[in-house]
Amino acid sequence: MLKTDRCRVVGAMSGTSLDGVDAAEIVTDGHEVFEFGPSAFFPYTPAQRDTLKGALGKWPEDDIADVCELIETVHAQALIGFEAAELVGFHGQTLAHDPKGKQGAPRTHQAGDGAILAEVLGKPVVWDFRTADVQMGGEGAPLAPFYHFALAKHMKATAPIAILNLGGVGNITWVDPSQPLPETEGALLAFDTGPANAPLNDLMLEKTGNPFDKNGVTASKGVVNEQVITEFLNHPYFFRMAPKSLDRDDFSALNTAVADLSLEDAAATLTMACAASVAEGLKQCPQPPTQLLVTGGGRLNATLMKMIADRTDLPVAPIEDAGFDGDMLEAQAFAFLAVRVAKGLPTSASGTTGVAAAIGGGTLSRP
Q: What is the pLDDT of residue 16?
């Protein structure tokens, strides 16, 4: 369906941190990234954020028509300005994620209808990226690793690197750039490390009205409660082998565990929980990466970045140090994946989601 091998495509991502919609344009053939185009951020209002938060954990059979309309409307507003793009990658908003079928059949739920967006934007839209992977026995997440592989090639890395995304949930991709393709065995290992910004953001919003701990200032004034961290690291999730994935609220007990601490101590403890889970995750990598490049909102938290560096004993840097945009990496990833879906290429493999074989997910809707 693509007019040329190279495609100008825009991707949109609304993450578990519920801050808003990231939209970013790239030029790619689904293998290489040739150009990084414009980007935009469209924040949710406090009322919209409350609506989305109230819908977390809900499935398509629940009454969420208003939530879907909100998601589609805000995404349309964010994407309408990308007139040069010939294709759209629309992730939607993850409300529930149960790849192991704890509540019945394995499934995942990203709210928002790409077919509606295709009509509104007048462009083909690729969406529902995760369902096929889950149906084939995969975790359905994380899906950015194939894009991370392309970035490692773009920066001409010669030794293994790791890209750590700190959104609401943390996820890491270990990349061996010497391999020819992302689906090649041993090229990638990816998994969710544990909670990242979500518990801290929830704490700050509840206690201060601010949606996050800017630059980690509050946490920097507190003392970590080591008992909470020890109990946190005894969670069964950390004993599961990768690939593995989380729902945003799988560690909701963590906020309960710090409820009696001062704001500063609670913030320090939740920040350390993120750093400790990253360190635990790195133990599962085939070999230590030469560097840890951090993307997502967590890279802007100086206290968190220092805790990760201290806990992992690795060079830790924001992904901007490698020349990339840490705010827009996930949106770019779904632009990249949209082209792969349109070309019938795999979007996940056993090393990234645990799926039985390399598989291409996604649904293509035309206007």
A: 75
C-alpha atoms less than 13 angstroms from C-alpha of 360 in its C-beta half-sphere: 15
Does the pLDDT of residue 181 top 60, yes or no?
Answer: yes
Range list of H helices, the chain: 46-55, 65-79, 114-121, 131-135, 145-154, 197-208, 217-220, 226-233, 253-257, 263-282, 302-312, 329-343, 350-353
The pTM of the full predicted model, rounded to 2 decimals, is 0.92
Q: What residues form DSSP beta bridges with 316?
A: 292
Beta strand pairing call for 125-127 and 161-166:
unpaired
The residues pairing with 13 across neighbouring beta strands, listed in sequence order, are 22
What is the spatial distance between Cα 304 and Cα 357, in angstroms, rounded to a whole number? 36
**What confidence score (pLDDT) does residue 275 get?**
98
CA dihedral 329, 330, 334, 340 (to 10 degrees): 60
CA distance 106 to 207: 36
**Residue type for position 245:** S
Residue 100: what pLDDT?
A: 86
Q: Which helix (H) or strand (E) holds 87?
A: strand 87-98
Q: What is the pLDDT of residue 24?
A: 98
State CA 310 to chain mean position distance: 24
Instruction: Give the chain's length.
Output: 367
Confidence of residue 288 (pLDDT cuts 50, 70, 90): very high
Q: Which two tokens stand for residue 93?
A: 């908003």
d(CA 161, CA 198): 25
Report the run of H or E that residue 171 belongs to, with start and end.
strand 169-175
Q: Which residues neighbour 163 within 8 Å (Cβ) at sequence distance 6 or greater? A: 144, 148, 151, 152, 172, 173, 175, 293, 294, 295, 319
Closest by Cα among 169, 163, 143, 167 to 151: 163
Give the residue among 366, 315, 354, 345 at the shortest CA–CA distance from 147. Answer: 345
What integer best gives the mean pLDDT of the chain?
Answer: 95
| Contacts (Cβ under 8 Å, ≥6 apart) of 201 | 17, 168, 211, 212, 213
| pLDDT confidence bin for 111, thresholds 50/70/90 | very high
